[in-house]
Amino acid sequence: MQELQGVPDNETVERIVREVLAALGHKNAVEPQAEAASACETPSPSPPPIAAAAKARIISAREGELAIPDRVVTVASLDGQLNGVRRLLVQPGTILTPAVRDLLRQRGIVVTYGPVPKRNRSGADVGSGVGGTLLPVVLVTRRISAQQLAGLFRGTDVNVLPEELDCLVRTSHRVAEVVRRPGSRACVVTSQVAAGLCLANRLEGVRAVLGRRPSEVAADAAAVGANVLVADATQGVFQIKRMMLEFVRAGRECPDAFAKYLS
Q1: pLDDT single digits (tens) 205-239
Q2: DSSP 224-257
Q3: Can you give the pLDDT at residue 63?
Q4: Does position 58 have pLDDT exceeding 90, yes or no?
Q5: Are the beta carbons of 259 and 207 closer than 8 angstroms?
């Protein structure tokens, strides 16, 4: 047998993943039928073989976003689903094949990790099953990953929706887009806090405050009715978590004295 040389390319990995998923689906479909047939005199015909893995059950959650509850995402499961999409929401721990990552990078689609809505049998949205405050978080740092951040908030009343970007300018426009929705807030985590703060506050509707110490965040946010927190990534993951918790619990309304100038 000829030995494989080197690392398999993305197309090979994608094909292997599809075949494994198809085999698992075929096994699950066939085994109950075989068990029933052994108890009957006339066995039921076997189901037709599955040629490929079923498409992911994809749910539109927000404008320009697709939410996928599947634990493994392949190019086949995204076929024909990416038109107009800017963000892909998946559960923490979801596996994206290399070909999927390349496809998303080519299309400029960012991946976010967080609670994914589910549907009942009629197809109606029933939510993620997790209550609490939603807080979109943009990570412009390598000090903490999206999956790590999502894990930190597990069991709290705050559901973070993290995404990773590598540009503070794009990040400032991203959070400005988020806070246009009434009552919405967002957080930026970066070690370049001065630049992040200035860039965010240049944009209409953004009231950003600096996060360096958890003890100061709530008062600073309430003082201006802040809707964006720029948290210092150098403070460590647990300090960042505390700052975010204080931020979402602070007052949301901009004081009358500043509303004319900051809204």
Answers
A1: 999 999 999 999 999 999 999 999 999 999 999 99
A2: HT-SEEEEEGGG-HHHHHHHHHHHHHS--SPPHH
A3: 65
A4: no
A5: no
pLDDT at 30: 42
At residue 173 the predicted structure's pLDDT band, cuts being 50, 70 and 90, is very high
| Domain 132-263: CATH class, spelled out | alpha beta
Domain 53-129 grouped into CATH 3.30.750 = yes
- Evaluate whether 87 touches 113 at the Cβ level (below 8 Å): no
CA–CA separation, 174 vs 196, rounded Å? 12
Domain ranges of the chain: 53-129, 132-263
Backbone angles phi, psi at 191, to 5 degrees: -85, -10
Count, in order, helices (H) and strands (E) of the chain. 9, 11
Calculate the CA 133 to chain-centre distance: 15
Burial class (CB in 10 A: 0-12, 13-18, 19+), 170: middle
